């Protein structure tokens, strides 16, 4: 049976995830893989999320750059993450396609585009963290902080203290900034960054090197944070026997 949120005429809450706009940032693919694998799994949380939200995922925004082994640019030498404002169907086809889809959803009264998350990797910082936007409206600014705060509780390698909100000019062509300006105040747009090399847990522990599995785990934790965000916890089928506490 179709989930209630997919029935004709049903209002849809959409979470849009993109990754690998910078081809050298391979960890972003593993984080995205973790999100996808979790969402299509038989995990009780994944079932609840599929029933309540629609996830749209573009796992590789720069496939030609990835194929060529470029670090940051596309086949034609563009840093795609500076061209969201006016992407050309010829020069930036993936951005153009994703942007058209997002605008289509934005203009559809039955669709609420609630989240846009663009996944990157960071070459100098540790841990996972987010960039968000700056709003004049204090309440909207506070609401935007809710998701990264919840993610920080779910993921030991995610750092809320490294999460920052900015509007500097150099970032104006990024997905987060452009869509943050386009979408209305019920949409939240983030860049999710994860370190290329390691994360530090609380306390005097040395840095823990990231593995592919650890990146995928961060992705799983991103997905399950939507359960907390939408307060859907009561809908998860609990195992009958008390399960051991796992983080």
From TrEMBL:
Keywords: Carboxypeptidase, Hydrolase, Protease. GO terms for molecular function: metallocarboxypeptidase activity; zinc ion binding. It holds the Pfam family Peptidase_M14. SUPFAM superfamilies: Zn-dependent exopeptidases. Its cofactor is Zn(2+). Residues 1-230 form the Peptidase M14 domain. CDD domains: M14_AGBL4_like. InterPro entries: Cytosolic_carboxypeptidase, Peptidase_M14. The active site is at residue 193. PROSITE patterns: PEPTIDASE_M14 (PS52035). GO terms for biological process: proteolysis. Gene3D superfamilies: Zn peptidases (3.40.630.10). Belongs to the peptidase M14 family. This is CBPC6 carboxypeptidase. It comes from Thinocorus orbignyianus. The gene is Agbl4_1.
């Amino acid at each position: 049976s179709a989930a209630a949120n997919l029935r004709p005429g049903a209002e849809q809450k959409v979470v849009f995830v993109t990754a690998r706009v910078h081809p050298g940032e391979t960890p972003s693919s593993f984080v995205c893989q973790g999100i996808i694998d979790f969402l299509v799994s038989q995990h009780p949380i994944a079932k609840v999320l599929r029933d309540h939200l629609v996830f749209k995922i573009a796992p590789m925004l720069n496939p030609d750059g990835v194929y060529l082994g470029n670090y940051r640019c596309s086949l034609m030498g563009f840093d795609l993450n500076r061209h969201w404002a006016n992407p050309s169907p010829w020069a930036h086809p993936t951005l153009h396609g994703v942007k058209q889809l997002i605008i289509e959803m934005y203009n559809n009264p039955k669709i609420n585009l609630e989240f846009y998350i663009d996944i990157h990797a960071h070459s100098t910082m540790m841990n996972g963290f987010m960039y968000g936007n700056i709003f004049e409206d204090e309440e909207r600014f506070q609401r935007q902080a809710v998701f990264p705060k919840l993610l920080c509780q779910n993921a030991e390698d995610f750092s809320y203290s490294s999460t920052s909100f900015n509007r500097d000019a150099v970032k104006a062509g990024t997905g987060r900034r452009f869509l943050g300006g386009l979408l209305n105040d019920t949409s939240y747009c983030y860049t999710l960054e994860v370190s290329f090399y390691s994360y530090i847990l609380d306390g005097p522990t040395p840095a823990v090197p990231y593995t592919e599995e650890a990146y995928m785990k961060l992705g799983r934790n991103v997905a399950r944070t939507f359960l907390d965000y939408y307060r859907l916890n009561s809908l998860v089928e609990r195992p009958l026997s008390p399960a051991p506490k796992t983080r």
